[in-house]
Design brief:
Elements: H1 10-21, H2 26-38, H3 44-47, E1 51-53, E2 58-60, H4 79-124, E3 136-138, E4 145-147, E5 150-152, H5 156-161, E6 168-172, E7 182-187, E8 195-201, H6 212-217, E9 219-220, E10 226-227, H7 230-237, E11 242-249, E12 255-260, E13 264-265, E14 274-275, E15 282-283, H8 316-320, H9 342-346, E16 364-371, E17 375-377, H10 384-392
Antiparallel strand pairs: 1-2, 3-17, 4-5, 6-7, 7-8, 8-10, 8-16, 9-10, 11-12, 11-16, 12-15, 13-14
Length: 394
């Protein structure tokens, strides 16, 4: 009567169970139900939709039970537990989906951030907007200006950044408005390289006792003794924050140096005033550019044989036979008479006094500048429109 049944035979089992349950007492019903429940081959769902209420000791048929739901043994889990399980399963499903959603969102975030970064890099390789004074434009130096389709460099720092590692002559374009080229000597090895030499002396072959216009425009050859010109020096020191490096060789063959920060030379309207950061000196030559016995060229204007801007009672250009940023004359006179002969007695040599505590001249001198910040300066631009014209035409 209670043999195994497949799922397809649940209807007949239910009919048999219903017929029996209506004709026996409660104890017999319990025994019959126990046999049916303990059957290893017939499950509860396969045999009946009735259930046994242990509190009353009676079987409840579908007609007297809850409508629309499968009844179960009363001490099974109540409805609220079933609902909790259902909610738990739903929550588990939601939780299982969350890592996937997080991964997808993370991928989108990476894609978006990468795209934004790429656009930013490409933009910076072009140009940024001008600052408030209208004549300075910061650039990423991987962006190069072009002249007639040819890439051009502003200074030796640019050349160094683009892989030029050899000392020697190069053509640069420090003025962005006129794009006038100048030939310079680049020191690509000293202190990391990238130095643009603006003064060089080595044998006395060039006369440095000259007038204002000569120093303004420059003289000599970059391959030998020369002065780069104060106009060009101004442009080079306004390309960005600039260092000054003075490299000296004594007649004994010993080399010395002096290095300064924030070096700048104004334009001609301010008489090519020199400035540098006080206290920034480094080196073994002695601080010949800072304050030594009222000799402080920092902040001083340039003086030549025909234009005197020093603070001395006499004219330092006559006393020193040179041209420099004299204050009350100076302890530095690298544009004086070359040598260590008669000029030593007259204190007119091309000396750096602190090397030997004397006015003896130096055998070799290199005075160099190097830009630190990636800035671009248009000395002749009078407005933002001028500046943009300079950049956009390239």
């Amino acid at each position: 009567m209670y043999s195994d049944r497949s799922e397809g035979s649940r209807g007949s089992g239910y009919a048999q169970f219903s017929a029996i349950s209506s004709s026996i007492d409660s104890k017999q019903s319990i025994a019959i139900y126990t046999v049916i429940s303990n059957s290893t081959s017939t499950t509860y769902d396969k045999i009946s939709e009735g259930f046994y209420d242990r509190q009353t000791g009676k079987f409840i048929t579908p007609k007297s039970g809850r409508e629309g739901k499968l009844p179960r043994i009363r001490d099974d889990k109540p409805d609220h537990v079933e609902q909790e399980n259902s909610n738990s399963n739903q929550e588990h499903t939601k939780n299982s989906k969350r890592p996937c959603i997080i991964v997808i969102l993370s991928v989108f975030a990476v894609i978006i951030s990468t795209t934004v970064a790429t656009i930013a890099v490409l933009y910076l390789q072009g140009q940024d907007s001008p600052n408030d004074n209208g004549n300075m434009l910061r650039l990423n130096r991987s962006y190069l200006r072009k002249n007639n389709g040819t890439e051009i460099f502003s200074d030796c720092k640019d050349l160094k950044l683009f892989g030029n590692d050899s000392d020697g002559l190069y053509t640069v374009y420090p003025d962005p408005l006129t794009e006038t080229p100048i030939v310079v000597y680049c020191d690509m090895t000293t202190d990391g390289g990238g130095w643009t030499v603006f003064q060089h002396r080595r044998d006395g072959s060039v006369n440095f006792y000259r007038q204002w216009d000569s120093y303004k425009n420059g003289f000599g050859e970059a391959s030998g003794e020369h002065w780069i010109g104060n106009d060009n020096l101004h442009k080079l020191t306004t390309l960005g924050t600039t260092e000054l490096y003075v490299r000296l060789e004594a007649f004994s063959g010993v080399w010395y140096y002096a290095k300064y920060s924030d070096f700048k030379v104004a334009d001609e309207s301010d008489e090519y005033r020199l400035s540098l950061k006080a206290g920034s000196y480094k080196g073994n030559a002695g601080d010949g550019m800072d304050n030594h016995g009222s000799t402080d060229p920092s902040g001083m204007q340039f003086s030549t044989i025909d234009i005197d801007n020093d603070n001395a009672t006499g004219r330092c250009t006559f006393a020193r036979q040179g041209a420099w940023w004299y204050n009350q004359c100076t302890l530095t006179n690298l544009n004086g008479i070359y040598g260590n002969g008669d000029c030593l007695t007259a204190e007119q040599c091309n000396f750096w006094y602190l090397i030997s505590s004397s006015y003896v001249g130096v055998k070799t001198s290199y005075i160099m500048v190097r830009r630190l910040e990636n800035q671009f300066y248009c000395a002749s631009c009078k407005s933002i429109n001028d500046l943009m014209f300079v950049l956009c035409r390239h």
